[in-house]
Structure prediction request, 140 residues.
Amino acid sequence: RVMKQFWEMYDAEGWSIHTCRFKYNEENTQAFMTANATGGFVQRSGEIRKWLFGVMYVTGTEGTTPLEISGCYLIRGQDMEPLQVANDDTAVYYWNKVDTSTPEGKAHVAHMWCYDVDKWNNGEPIYLEGKLVNDVKQFK
Prediction:
């Protein structure tokens, strides 16, 4: 229901949505350090808080599956340049603009943004793209 409202209000000419993937996931060996990296990224993005909303995930299990960082951001404008100027860490991520005109693009954004907060807060497992979520940070 929330995403339905979002898409009704979304201005695709004035805003865009981008996903990111960390370029060096093979270096993520410890969960707490990987979670700290996402926290630092969010913290360093504060300069453009008025024009940015997003979520960052760490998926995987330390010692068992790869720890991967990914995210999904709504930004004013059609590219990530304002975030790249504000936060040098953007250089260590692959960025892809989501085609929000397609049902697949909208579904992907909903999957990235609409995790089960109650489950997360109660310590129950949640999954992103079929991978166990180890940590999640919101930027708002």
Notes: The longest strand covers residues 68-76. Strands lie at 15-22, 52-59, 68-76, 93-97, 127-128, 131-139. The helical segments are 2-9, 31-44, 81-86, 103-113, 117-121. The chain has a mean pLDDT of 94.
